[in-house]
Amino acid sequence: MRWLYVHFPQLYLHACGADLQQPQALLDALGQHVIDCNHIAQQQGVLPSMPSASAWCLCPDLQAQRLDETRQHHWLQQRAQWAYQFSAQVSLDAPEGLWLEVASMARLFGSLQQLWHSMSSEAQALGWPMQLGLANTAALAKLAAYNRWQQQPEPTIDAMDSLWQQCLDANPSQLQLTESQQLQLQRLGIGNLRQLLRLPEADIAQRLSPQLLTYIWQLQGKKQPTLTFFKPALTFNDDTVFIEEIEHRNGLLFPLTRMLASLSGFLWQRQLATQQLHIQLQHRHHNTTHWRINFAHPEYRQTELTFLCRHQLEKRRLPAPVTHMTLSVKHFVAQAGAQSNMAFSNAVSAADEHTLLNRLQARLEPEQLRRVAMTGDARPEHASQLPRHIDYHPHTGAQRSYGRPLWLLPTPHPCPTPERFDSGPERISAGWWDRNAVRRDYYRAWLGSSYVWVFRDDQQQWYLHGYFA
């Protein structure tokens, strides 16, 4: 097996929307110690495990957030959802890592190098810092990722041997050991893994700890770490926490664009589309705002999702500054389910038709976008209606009667007997169920220079009902 470890450094600080151009720190849940900090904070002397009071003394401008483990796990699950397009076996390694089994994916992507490149490119486009490590064992892949031992994958036997040699020469601080384990090795005068492996395994377990021996076996591939594989749910959720409150709706567009990019990837890898987005906005001193954005047709493309949401935002007003935004989708349809039924041109593709209708709905109010729908009533004046597009259901079983004109008069007008008939009669006897019964014989005929649709009622009176082009 081949394992790819994905490390997202400073995941919490990046996911929560912190301004990383400023000194930032992540504190424990009680706010007493620094768990993590960005490079700018480190330049001013702030370090992990430092008391928060000391950190503020060194860096008065330090912006700090307390750890929320539930939110942290949620963000790691989001990364797992994204990584699922690259491997069917994804395992979470909290708080900032993922394991992917990739040997079975080499043929799909062409090579492991191409898979590596695809992941790196997509993560860079999303603005996610990421470190990768590829090895024959899961534990060694994690070390390679954390220590940046690989700039690009070389899944050959020689490359794997070279990676193992780097592991043998690594000092204890590079081996992801606990502080107590590092102190024990220091007392024994052991400076790297190669020296440690010279000891008999029984001595390692007795003089150090059984856990350390198990870890060595995991590095060597003699024992596999316990992995629980991620099972993605068919729902999408993404959120952004704002360090500074967003006071204007345009300020929501940039973080929303990033979230829509994640949604588009989620939909693409599952060959799905959606017709409704739910945006939830939280405010400091106001009730939560809920926005539902509906599309005329299901959509999955990032460019179109962004275009439609931008126009929807222009029609909405923020009741109060926003501190937290969540994008969620719960209803999906298959991408292949769309069929074109555009009447005005057989050359227009289904995608073009849906794009046009979605853009019209984004600009118009729901009452303004309507579709012609057949009702199944034989009476021409009741054979069609104009429902709102969001209420339109094209597969009702009703079919358009060909040979009738598209241009019908609001009410039939009395007319003289036609000079010439082209076809007919078409007899219609209907409406008895609503006490508006009609009995008519329809003809395609000529009245002067006009090609018309006329009928004769049961009183033998002629009426003009429509014109042909």
TrEMBL record:
Entry-linked PANTHER family: BLR3025 PROTEIN, BLR3025 PROTEIN-RELATED
Protein name, per record: UmuC domain-containing protein
Coiled coil: none
Protein keywords: DNA damage
Residue ranges occupied by any UmuC domain in the UniProt entry: 32-145
Single biological process term from Gene Ontology: DNA repair
Family: Belongs to the DNA polymerase type-Y family.
